[in-house]
């Protein structure tokens, strides 16, 4: 990736940045293992950098099939998978279903910019834990993750 190219953060306002730090306090004691999947390279790379700077391990994939291959070969569990819904070849819904069929227990968040009224129910039925509407607000994402992790414990 061209390091000189300006990157747009998924959430750049100072109030949201402060809220993100506050919301991530519950996650700060753990270094979580993330898998991020989106064909929008600039967006997902920026999202990955934000998580990495908070001390998390982040694996980025630009297709569902690449992420699925990675997950099928892993000897350790990931904690959180974040996938876009609209991607070529394999959408986030299909990816979620296939990941669940592999027995992956990670929290799965599906992102979409084109949510329809019944989409959330469809994603949850497929095995997703969280549905996120783009543009993603990092503070809201981290708060949802912390909430879901608390419910899981």
UniProtKB/TrEMBL annotation:
Response regulatory domain location: 33-149
CDD domains: REC_hyHK_CKI1_RcsC-like
Top-level taxon of the source organism: Bacteria
Keyword Ion transport tagged: no
4-aspartylphosphate modified-residue sites: 84
InterPro entries given in the database record: CheY-like_superfamily (IPR011006), Sig_transdc_resp-reg_receiver (IPR001789), ST_Response_Regulator (IPR052048)
Keyword rRNA-binding set for record: no
SUPFAM superfamilies: CheY-like
Keywords of this entry: Phosphoprotein
Coiled-coil intervals, chain numbering: none
PANTHER family named among the record's database cross-references: TWO-COMPONENT RESPONSE REGULATOR, TWO-COMPONENT RESPONSE REGULATOR ARR22
Name of the molecule in the record: Response regulator
Species classification: Bacteria, Pseudomonadati, Pseudomonadota, Gammaproteobacteria, Alteromonadales
